[in-house]
Write a structure and sequence with these properties.
251 residues, alpha/beta, six-stranded parallel sheet, three-stranded antiparallel sheet, 9 strands, 15% strand, globular, binds NADPH dihydro-nicotinamide-adenine-dinucleotide phosphate
Amino acid sequence: MFKKFGLNAVYLAFEIEKSSLGLAFEAVRSLNMQGVNLTIPFKEEAVNFVDEIPEDLDRALGALNTIANRDGVLYGYNTDMRGFLFSLKEELSFNPEGKTALILGAGGAARAMAFGLAHARAERILIHNRTPERAAGLVDHLDKHFPETDIKGLDYLDGIKSENIHLVVNSTSLGLKENDESPIDLKILSGRPDVYDVIYSAHETALLKQAGQMGLKKVNGLGMLANQAALAFEIWTGKSGVREQMKALFS
Ligand code: NDP
């Protein structure tokens, strides 16, 4: 994308120790880097090292994946959440307003996706995670910011048949490996939900395979990945409307 726009810039990967995060932020400032993306496990802790989080929603979410350095002032953003919402709209034509979503997982991706769905006025969000305490923590966090949304943690999926689920979101890392099992048997649901899998690997996950066999609308996480990258690019460069070009690079 830098080449496409004729920008004198490079995008490089740095692997750092968790204990060095503060030093890494200082390096962004002292080396005058224009921006960085952060990934697991740094997104939450990053909020402690930026000077400003301009968007209320990003501040509430409490996890950053994009930093912009403007004259030595570090601004933090979360583009995962918006990338997910764009992907839902464009690839599944799904509007969360008034809908019920089942989120599988309660990690960083789940947090961004749940915030996105609540922000887009989903009526009910159910969260199920292998470690129920983590789901309960996410529910508490969301409840504080979206009192009008019905948000519930599910320790088990046993009673799920009585729910009218419109969207199933896999936000776990199950599916990364080709022989991973699906995080849910879609046949235990009563309706015909759309299925969003955060995994963007080249192979089709077991979840998406089953969704395909059942004729459900489904999509993998590549669109979210491309959209979050495009939004970060726009934040750093001031360019706009680059999502289609970024998506073309990812496909
Ligand atoms: P986290 O480590 O924060 O969370 C991992 C989640 O997966 C937890 O809910 C964890 O449950 C669950 N999990 C892991 N292994 C298993 C298992 N064997 N069985 C059931 N649940 C399991 O990671 P992230 O949330 O940051 O990332 C999750 C996935 O999303 C990754 O594969 C990542 O690549 C992808 N991702 C994709 C993005 C995109 O743009 N498409 C953006 C961000 C992430 P528990 O709490 O019990 O450990």
